[in-house]
Design goal:
2 copies of one chain form a homodimer.
Chain A: H1 9-17, H2 22-30, H3 36-42, H4 48-60, E1 64-67, E2 76-79, H5 81-84, H6 87-100, H7 112-122, E3 133-139, E4 148-153, E5 157-160, E6 170-174, H8 176-183, H9 189-194, E7 198-202, H10 204-213, H11 219-225
Parallel strand pairs in A: 3-6
Antiparallel strand pairs in A: 1-2, 3-4, 4-5, 6-7
Chain B binds a DNA duplex (20 and 20 nucleotides) through residues 1-2, 19-21, 35-37, 40, 45-53, 73-75.
Chain lengths: 226, 226
DNA sequence: CAGTATCCGATGCGATACTG
DNA sequence: CAGTATCGCATCGGATACTG
């Protein structure tokens, strides 16, 4: 990308940050992605060569650092101090997007894989009243390969496309649009259940446990918008 | 630009905001530019057709509104509520750029026209102890067409490439790099004068008056960085 | 002045295949 | 798994000229 030939700080920052995919690469790093394959999961439409190129560019600009890990063939990518300080930029983008581009979310922006991956990395199992909770999601209108997911809340949170073998505690079923709306905090979980666009199945106690932790991370943004 | 096929708010916002030139168009609007020609002055390397296209896109996304003005052939562009709320995004970009991309400012990012235009729109003459102050800038190393500028601080601030006829109160001369560094708050005015990379000429009183108003608008950012 | 139309070249980037 | 190399098309956008 050619520069803007302007000394203005907005222009200089934009030259680096606003290249295609770059804000999303930064988002992945800010969400804790470290390995190349972590990043790819959240950037599934991005070709590996382009991801590699962007990471090099970010490294070159001192935003990303590549750390080799003892005993592993490949290293980890992390944000430098300069990269950390881009957080307000990405957050501001996200807040604006949450508030103002809801209507732009088209059907082919909806991807069950990205949704589940985002849940897996943003839901925390701390304070769970049971030792382990196994939740089976069924995305009713997704293509076969993306219909069934298992989230296992244990010491870690785990995401599987195959039944991991444990007994299922809670079954969640819904269409994809509803699930995304709930996850983004546009629709209240209770409202989705009431309207029967979403259903939870399981013992009262397990369902309650699940509800207590299944909170949209976008609720602050949703509240700020209102 | 093709979208990212992600429902994530960061992605949806990035699809719109991070297109080439768009952050700079927004910057211009946020700095008060209203007419097509205002915008062009701050975007001198952008072709009018592309500016027109970007404005249409922004209008289409509900970020910019085009208001026709009574009795004028062309209207004014303004930010809608949604556009106003992009201010934190552009500001965050600018703050990061100010802090982290100083070293990336190359010689051909330096443009006397943009510098003077930015001064003209960001310096305010309120509180000036004289009724009018005429300042002549000479950018020693700029090409002939961009060497000499007059800023007239009156009820309004005016910028001319020709001597506007008034007597000059203060003469400022410097090389372009120094001027930009001072304007961006990287170099203190006093330090630039001491090192003789910049010189002010004029009566003691007029020079003092000028110094009192010639403040970098980036000082808050510079302070935050330190 | 305030834009629009057209053209064409560079290149960004997506797809695919490949390697340590 | 963690990337890299290559290829070719699409498109973005820069230049220029034009119009109301």
């Amino acid at each position: 990308m050619k520069g803007y030939s302007q000394f203005c700080p907005v222009a200089k920052a934009a030259e680096i940050i606003t290249m295609r995919w770059t804000p999303l690469v930064l988002r992945e790093l800010m969400c804790g992605g470290k390995r190349f394959s972590d990043l790819r999961r959240g950037l599934c439409q991005m070709s590996p060569s382009l991801l590699s190129k962007r990471l090099k560019e970010l490294e070159h600009h001192g935003i990303v650092e590549r750390l080799s890990v003892e005993g592993e063939s490949s290293g980890h990518y992390t944000l430098t101090e300069s990269g950390q300080q881009l957080r307000p930029v990405i957050e501001a983008l996200g807040e604006w997007g949450h508030r103002w581009s809801r209507s732009q979310v088209s059907d082919d922006d909806l991807d069950a894989g990205l949704l589940m991956w985002d849940m897996r990395r943003r839901l925390s199992c701390t304070g769970l009243p049971v030792k382990r909770l196994v939740v089976h999601f069924e995305v009713m209108d997704a293509p076969a390969a993306q219909r069934r997911w298992w989230l296992v809340f244990d010491s870690e949170v785990d995401l599987c496309l195959q039944n991991p073998g444990y007994d299922v505690d809670v079954e969640v079923s819904s269409d994809l649009r509803t699930m995304v709306d709930v996850w983004l905090g546009y629709t209240d979980t209770a409202a989705a259940l009431r309207s029967q666009n979403m259903a939870f199945t399981g013992s009262r106690a397990k369902v309650r446990a699940f509800k207590s932790m299944f909170k949209s991370p976008f609720l602050p943004a949703a509240a700020a918008a209102a």
